[in-house]
Amino acid sequence: MNREVTVGLIGAGVMGADHARLLSGAVAGARVGGIYDVDEARARRVAQDSGARPLIDPLKLIADESIDAVLIASSDPTHEEYVLAAIAAGKPVLCEKPLAPTVAGCQRILDAETAYGRRLVTVGFMRRHDPGYLELKRALDDGDIGAPLVLHCVHRNPTNNPGQPSSNVITNSAVHELDVSRWLLGEEIVEATVHTPRPARAAGGTADPQLLILRTASGTLIDVEVFVNAGYGYEVRCELVGETGTVQLDTPSATVARRGGGTTRSLPMDWRPRFAEAYRAELQHWVDGARRANPPAPSPAATAWDGYVATYLAQACVQAFETGGPVAIELPNRPALYQP
Ligand SMILES: NC(=O)c1ccc[n+]([C@@H]2O[C@H](COP(=O)([O-])OP(=O)(O)OC[C@H]3O[C@@H](n4cnc5c(N)ncnc54)[C@H](O)[C@@H]3O)[C@@H](O)[C@H]2O)c1
Ligand SMILES: O[C@H]1[C@H](O)[C@@H](O)[C@H](O)[C@@H](O)[C@H]1O
């Protein structure tokens, strides 16, 4: 296929609406053809804005002949059913993270894709397309800072479902660091411990913040402070410490104000402005892949295997949170379809 890719979108909430906006105005070679959301009014609104058709049956939308590729941005527990339907229809599918919230759900997706015999699934771990993270990876891979020793990560949201189960802080939020750390370092995480301070009052009973300490196979240590009810803004930090230097993400800010004897860099209040370029690049990369029979390699994009591993690691961290102890992690063998 070398023509325009017609995308079927499932989920028209915050992310679905943003993806529809990008596909319609900032990504070349794609259009949104149909949209489904259980909330019909939302689907209608986003469909109107992007010139798509609102549909009332998600499985028919996925199977529809006019739909070339499927984008899933519905809530976490609904991903599996839609990804499996896209694989059954033989269509490329970009699924927002997490691939599925349980390891068993991710396994069913791996089994279906392996039986299909070709990779169709991409997982929306968009940080792999962020210019800052790409530069960190380049610096490490080119030997600019020597061998990696420690990766410091901070992931803060102003507010995020106060009172949600404490495990969600890991499976829905820290899962980004679990994915991006193994991608950056190019090796697997083999041990996890989770520490919690006194919970923030704004978290409404959720254990938040949480401090994840992870160890990789070669002995690099990763610390992740994830604090999703931090109040003040949306912020993601990352510093990689190597044997001969360090490299750190800068927090992009459109302006710096100087007044009253100080400087102020503004922070966004959610992920969309912070990762705007990452979302755009992720979608462009996915659309380019869907248009060609053989997508360009190597690719930073996360496969179903990466989605499986992220959920596997998240579950190990939940176990570490619940037991208070270190949890040793041994991944199953990577199926042949996902060998590099
Ligand atoms: N990559 C990222 O940075 C990022 C950022 C935010 C959210 N996400 C992920 O994107 C997904 C959507 O998050 P959001 O922030 O847009 O949430 P949201 O609550 O704004 O939107 C979710 C939408 O899914 C719809 N929905 C619920 N059940 C459905 C079903 N069975 N079928 C179809 N639609 C259904 C809801 O009506 C809602 O409109 C989640 O999986 C989330 O984890 C990823
Ligand atoms: O679903 C969102 C999204 O993945 C964001 O990137 C993350 O910062 C939030 O914590 C999470 O709730």
Descriptors:
7-stranded mixed sheet, binds nicotinamide-adenine-dinucleotide, Dihydrodipicolinate Reductase, domain 2, binds 1,2,3,4,5,6-hexahydroxy-cyclohexane, Rossmann fold, 2 domains, alpha/beta, 10 helices, 340 residues
What would you note in describing this structure?
- This protein has 340 residues and is of the alpha/beta class.
- The model has no long low-confidence stretch (mean pLDDT 96).
- A hairpin with a 3-residue loop joins β11 (235-242) and β12 (246-248).
- The chain has two domains: 5-125 and 276-303, NAD(P)-binding Rossmann-like Domain (Rossmann fold, 3-Layer(aba) Sandwich); 128-274 and 313-328, 2-Layer Sandwich (Dihydrodipicolinate Reductase, domain 2).
- The chain starts with a strand and ends in a 12-residue tail after the last strand.
- The protein is globular.
- The longest helix has 20 residues, at 166-185.
- It is 36% helix and 24% strand.
- Strands 3-2-1-4-5-6-15 form a seven-stranded mixed beta sheet, with helices on both faces.
- The structure holds nicotinamide-adenine-dinucleotide (NAD) and 1,2,3,4,5,6-hexahydroxy-cyclohexane (INS).
- Nicotinamide-adenine-dinucleotide (NAD) binds at residues 10-16, 36-39, 42, 58, 73-76, 78, 96-97, 124, 126, 172, 271.
